Amino acid sequence: AQGPHPRLRAALEALAQVRGRDWLHARLSTLDPAAAERIDPRNLRRTIRALEVILVTGKRFSAQRGLGEAPYRLLTIGLIRPRPELYARLDARIEAMFANGLLDEVQKLLEGGYSPDLPSMSAIGYRQCVAVLQGKMSREQAILEIKRATRIFVRRQANWFKPDDPEIHWFNPGEVTVSRLASFIRATLPRTIEKGEASNTILNN
């Protein structure tokens, strides 16, 4: 598989910021209609990766090994929690990250020569920590901002899946036990194998 190309990826990310993800997906549709058809326009990361491969290799992303039509169907299992419960768990995780030294981790990266302008430093959590270390934001403000940004990201991720998609078997991990889920897979897998299917799991907890 074609390895990452940081400078090109950064340029594509900048284009997405200026012109929007739909514009970028339209460019992919021009260069590789098959790939564009398979990639959700809302999945910016995947769109950028496809364009990156096309521009570096000169070949269509859809023609890369392993990207053609799958010889089987998928048994897709999704794990999802009620939104209030999910938010509470995320808030607790964010507070634990700060308690366990997230600020110190980011400070060491900056002291090690990593620029705050790197795309990786714009990730949720890192960019707020950089702002704290630069005196632009308090620790308390950073925690609140990370919680807010994370909730927005959760809602965006949820839009990638259709709640009425008959191909996804949804389970609430707070209500289903591991043994019950394993029993469901064992009961379903023989039928899917007979049909030439394979199993896959989507985690959204």
Just name the CATH architecture of the largest domain. Orthogonal Bundle
The number of helical runs is: 9
The gyration radius over C-alpha positions equals 21 Å
**Helical coverage, percent range:** 55-70%
What is the strand tally? 3
Shape: flat
Core attributes:
205 residues, Histone, subunit A, Helix Hairpins
What is the topological layout?
Elements: H1 6-19, H2 21-31, H3 33-38, H4 44-57, E1 74-79, H5 83-99, H6 102-111, H7 126-133, H8 139-158, E2 168-171, H9 178-194, E3 198-203
Helix pairs in contact: 1-2, 1-4, 2-4, 5-8, 6-7, 7-8
Characterization of this structure:
The chain has 205 residues and is mainly alpha-helical. It has 2 domains: 58 residues, Orthogonal Bundle (Histone, subunit A), CATH 1.10.20; 136 residues, Helix Hairpins, CATH 1.10.287.890. Helix 1 packs across helix 4 and helix 2 runs parallel beside helix 4.
